[in-house]
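User: Sequence in, structure out. Go.
Assistant: Echoing your sequence, followed by the structure tokens.
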Amino acid sequence: MFAETIKKLERQYEIKRNQADAVFAAEKRATYEKIPELGEIDKAIAKLGIQSAKLSLYASTPEEKEKEIQKLQKEIIELKNKKQEILKKSKINLVPKYSCLKCNDTGYVIKHGMSEMCSCMRQELLNEAYNKSNMNNLKSETFESLDLNLFSNKKNPNRYKSELSPRENMEIIVEIAKKFITNFDKPEQKNLLFTGTTGIGKTYVSSCIANEIIKSGNTVLYQTAPVLLDSVFTYKYNNQNKNLYESLFNVNLLIIDDLGTENLTAAKFSEIFTILNSRLLTNKTKTIISTNFSLEDLSKVYDERILSRIIGHFSICRFFRRRYKIKH
């Protein structure tokens, strides 16, 4: 499956790049027709390039060759600057519009002299293997679109078990989330545990964070606990999918949604502990856990090994707000 998915993504990237190149070629033709001087500059640059290449064959001395090459390079730079001035004056940005500027929609980048998969392609691989539909709404789920008016300003310590109003509490959580994003690459930044009943913003804030982390060039694996653990056992014991299993340990941000809704077995307990503990030991990855359970409830379901990792290495955010009745 892994090899097949890679080939599928490579084909998609090839199509995407070819489309961007075709659009750029059309834009370039239209621009050059409108401003013929640009074409003349390109011809002059090409001619100087040929002259520079010939020097390596026909220059009488190394000193003469170096002097002439520097002269030609200076002329080329002047022509390129002139071209840029014309484009700037005409308010034209004549570059291919690739969706990823790191790999130019090839899916691969050169790092330390070696070719490796770009973060954008690694993210696509994770989406294909794990995330599936969970990533579809990321563009619309942002902090800017978060409506704090959904959270009441009224304090009710008896109802919410807090001296804060739901809105004040949510404002604090948003600040914690934004700080998490800002300090994402810092080892001292703790992971996040979101607790609270359904429909009160946990998944939305998780999506907001995932959105920003992906924009920063990091990878995100986002899945519900039941589906994630089922995938784990599928990938772990299938030699062709070992890379997908290992993604759980090296993906930059792992978001486990709905922890506690999985069918618990000894094997799944062990796998949850292995995932959390391994990620904590690397000190280079972050994890967000979202659950409908309170910390007290989690202590009744999971053993001390798992709970101690959560308490010691996660900042706990409790979500609450008044439920609004739908009028019929």
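User: And one key feature?
Assistant: The longest helix spans residues 2-34.
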